[in-house]
Amino acid sequence: MMKKHRIFVVFGTRPEAIKLAPLILELKKRKGFQTQVVLTGQHRKMLDQVMEIFGLRAGYDLNIMREGQSLTDITKECLAGLEKIFRDDRPDFVLVQGDTTTAFTGALAAFYQKIPVGHVEAGLRTDDKFNPYPEEINRRLITSIADYHFAPTGWAAKNLLNENVPAGRIFVTGNTVIDALRIIVRRPLSSGFFRRFKKSHRLILVTAHRRENWGEPMRCICAALKKLVLTHYDIEIAFPVHLNPRVRSVVKKSGLIHPRIHLLPPLDYELFAGLMNRCYFVISDSGGVQEEAPALGKPVLVMRKTTERPEGIKAGTVRLVGCKTSNIVSWADRLLLEPRAYNKMANAVNPYGDGLASKRIADFLSRHFRISRHFPQPFKAR
């Protein structure tokens, strides 16, 4: 009888859940693996939505989320809870994703128990430890711990090589978020939600939540949205407002009250993917959206000083615009008023993946555990 190799997949936020869901589903298909989901609950409601959409169940759930929790609180609670799980129910391998505090503590807890760690979406860098904060330092710390590095692109792999990570420990996979997006957009969506938007209007999808954009930057973002809707009569703005009180309070006080501005509750991933598919372009400070929207042919204006995903800028799908009201408005105006500028971004090749990243990682693990001799071909952007 074939031995089942026990893979624990650790995550605690909605973006991690989205990006790990297709990998978990792929691993569960494989006869040689017993895959266990370990949740920290760093986020709660939005995380649960993704679990339900992909039909995932947790073997363990630390449920750490508390109102007003600090990064220290999250780190302490995650590390203590994960230590107990890994000590008492020892897996053969731990997978973490990205750059959250959950991902960092998952890698650290596994290291303390001498369990091999694989890092999904490894090698992203801005070289500015406070942008994004705390993610840039989290991912660097995970790199120093991880045994295997699943880099989404050749650029990310090069970053790891420059930091003296052995080439044999790096594998370029593409980004699993493209796998997730392809699963979701194939599903039929109820049209009721979309009736609020006029088909004759161009829809701009907005997301904003990063810590470095709390306070004055968020006020500037809201001012830009207000100016855009007052100067372009054929647009609507869909803005799912993050649950964080520091985001919600600024948006509430900003006076974004207009019939063509839709302040929405956080959306489940199916509806959010549907909005991306329906929108004209995206304005966001998110990381994942920079990868997802180009896969649907949607330009992205990124409200950040730096990005750890420069492949999109090089390919022409993404533009860094910062958080100054004038910059956001200027670049949005260009996409709305200049068809050539819009088409250049919308038709650029997506450099982030081909929908096969999860299969490549599962194939890699099958080879690692000698379940299969097949070694998958790395992802290469066209």
How would you summarize this macromolecular structure in one to three sentences?
The protein has helices at 14-29, 45-53, 71-88, 101-112, 135-145, 154-162, 176-185, 216-231, 245-253, 269-278, 288-295, 310-315, 325-337, 339-346, 357-368, and strands at residues 5-11, 33-39, 60-61, 93-97, 117-120, 148-151, 170-172, 202-207, 235-240, 261-264, 281-284, 300-302, 318-320. It is of the alpha/beta class.
Blueprint of the fold:
Layout: E1 5-11, H1 14-29, E2 33-39, H2 45-53, E3 60-61, H3 71-88, E4 93-97, H4 101-112, E5 117-120, H5 135-145, E6 148-151, H6 154-162, E7 170-172, H7 176-185, E8 202-207, H8 216-231, E9 235-240, H9 245-253, E10 261-264, H10 269-278, E11 281-284, H11 288-295, E12 300-302, H12 310-315, E13 318-320, H13 325-337, H14 339-346, H15 357-368
Parallel strand pairs: 1-2, 1-4, 2-3, 4-5, 5-6, 6-7, 8-9, 8-11, 9-10, 11-12, 12-13
Kindly describe this structure:
With 382 residues, this protein is an alpha/beta fold. It folds into two domains: 5-175 and 353-368, Glycogen Phosphorylase B (Rossmann fold), CATH 3.40.50; 192-346, 3-Layer(aba) Sandwich (Rossmann fold), CATH 3.40.50. The protein is built from 15 helices and 13 strands. It has helices spanning 14-29, 45-53, 71-88, 101-112, 135-145, 154-162, 176-185, 216-231, 245-253, 269-278, 288-295, 310-315, 325-337, 339-346, 357-368; strands at residues 5-11, 33-39, 60-61, 93-97, 117-120, 148-151, 170-172, 202-207, 235-240, 261-264, 281-284, 300-302, 318-320. A seven-stranded parallel sheet has the order 3-2-1-4-5-6-7, with helices on both faces. A six-stranded parallel sheet has the order 10-9-8-11-12-13, with helices on both faces. Strand 6, helix 6 (154-162) and strand 7 (170-172) form a beta-alpha-beta unit. Helix 1 (14-29) packs across helix 15 and helix 3 (71-88) runs parallel beside helix 4. The longest helix has 18 residues, at 71-88. The chain starts with a strand and ends in a 14-residue tail after the last helix. The model has no long low-confidence stretch (mean pLDDT 94).
